[in-house]
Amino acid sequence: MNISGLITALFVVFILFSAYEVYSDDVRILVVLSSSMEPLMHPGDLIVVKRSSDVSLGDVVAFKDPSGKKSVLITHRVVEIGDGYFKTKGDAVEDVDPFDVHEKDVYGKFLFGIPYIGYLFHEFKNRNIMMYLLFILIPASVLMASEFRNLTMEEKILKRRERIKLMHERRNKKALKTHYLVVTFAAALIISFAAFNPTLEVVDGGVINKGFLTVYLFHSEPPYYSVLNPGESASYSFNTAINGAMPLILLYPLYRLGILWLTPLVTSAIATLLLKPVYYKPRKKHIGGG
Question: Which stretches make up the Peptidase S26 domain (predicted)?
Fold first, then answer.
């Protein structure tokens, strides 16, 4: 299977999975409207929550508004678990929420988020429409446009291109410049590691951020992260640290899944794909008549 076929197959799987999730109401899209969960979530962020009744201390959960507002879900962190209820609070506030959240009112847990694009969907009162647009209609439209473009190419031209392709394959010249590809990926990897690797100075009982970027310190206790601005020091222990070269809302789920270390590799791979013209220069194919 070529790259185009693989991408098409992945698109189809994604669309089918998204359609099932929308139909079963297993996931919902929410737009963050307040700053109570900063710096994890900012107003305008779009977050995806997945239906779940398995709630643990420290989980970020979405639950019905205790004031009784319909179709409104609040997203806060669980800080205490009682007999049939939870106590919650926002990461940005000191006080615990002045209400109990009953188990039956919890919709699910925060899965992942995308910064800022929530403003585009804020006017959609029906979140299922948002799910349909973002995860089904747009990907399906891209897929159909791609397939339509392929189908409209004349069969005669395709055959000629295939013959020309075979001729080129018999030669030693290659459109894919492998050494350029290796150099491009290596350069992207070095830049990614430099961007995400924090400059921390170890001092008695803690560390100081000597870099120019905010550093996120991830640890094993809720809320599982701390923010260390340039020049600031921290006296608490942590499991891992990473520069804030990406928004926290993207890094936090990766840490909770135990795959934060993949961040430089993934960003390097994406950068390499975007830089394809550097290492892949397809030759012009002159198609004659007859």
Answer: 11-74
Q: Residue 247, Cα to own-chain centre: how many angstroms? A: 10
> Which string of DSSP letters, residue by residue, matches 61-76?
EEEE-TT--TT-EEEE
DSSP 32: -
Looking at residue 224, its amino acid is Y
H/E element, 252: helix 248-257
CATH topology of domain 3-135: Umud Fragment, subunit A (2.10.109)
DSSP type of residue 228: E
Residue 249: which residues within 8 A CB-CB, separation 6 or more? 40, 41, 42, 45, 47, 112, 113, 114, 115
Q: What is the CA radius of gyration of the chain?
A: 24
Q: Alpha-carbon torsion 18, 23, 24, 27, what sign? A: positive
Q: What is the pLDDT of residues 92-150, one digit of tens each?
A: 999 999 999 999 999 999 999 989 887 776 655 555 555 555 555 566 566 566 655 55
pTM for the model: 0.77
191 vs 177 pLDDT, higher one: 191
Q: Which two tokens stand for residue 64?
A: 């019905």
Q: Quote the tokens at residue 289.
A: 């008549």
Sorted by where each begins, the domain ranges of the chain are: 3-135, 164-290
Tell me what pLDDT residue 170 has: 55
Cα–Cα distance list, 229 to 41, 205, 225, 249 (Å): 17, 18, 13, 17
- Hey, is 140 helix, strand or coil? helix
Q: CA–CA separation, 164 vs 158, rounded Å?
A: 10
